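Colleagues,

Please find the record for the two-part complex below.
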Amino acid sequence: EVQLVESGGGLVQPGGSLRLSCAASGFTFRTYAMSWVRQAPGKGLEWVSGISVSDGSTYYADSVKGRFTISTDNSKNTLDLRMSSLTAEDTAVYYCAKERYESSGFYFDSWGQGTLVTVSS
Amino acid sequence: QSVLTQPPSASGTPGQRVTISCSGSNSNIGNNAVNWYRQVPGTAPKLLIYTNNQRPSGVPDRFSGSKSGTSASLAVSGLQSEDEADYHCASWDDSLNNWVFGGGTKLTVL
């Protein structure tokens, strides 16, 4: 059974930094792409960043480019998101999601339970 | 402002058929598959429909998806009280080079 467990969320001051982690199990981690998707309070889903675990290619939403860094530790099957220069607009529940590819397209087939990041003084 | 456009709310009575629309552009829905996620408030999203019209195992056939041009739809037939949730559409955007989502539609069973 696929399991994705996020950790690292919490309260951080504006301008501060935080590191989120996602522990993955139940699948061959290095053969999938992974993403972080966030949801601000009362809002819809927003894709933040993605990584191809096999070749390390990374992708970022314009809203976080230059401030967030996505990475993986294939030896520990973990996905990380390093966040810096945080603002109130980054306040959200952050989900890690596993991406599955089929010939007809790709999609997020598994999601973690989420971790809440609150940016406030 | 979400790149994909969904109505903020939809409703129906038990047994009815309800559809939720998702409108995009040539760079996303027009050129890529659409996926739908169901989210009960306070919980994580869950895959409902993938690549336009495929259901993961365990999803009842009351749920169906379709796509035409730059728009997609999710249909829920035989509406049940447990269908109350938020429904999100998503697609890859070739111009932005990232995933885009709709703002989500809150489905209420009256």
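Residues 48 and 57 of chain B are 10 Å apart (CA to CA).

Comments are welcome before we finalize the supplementary table.
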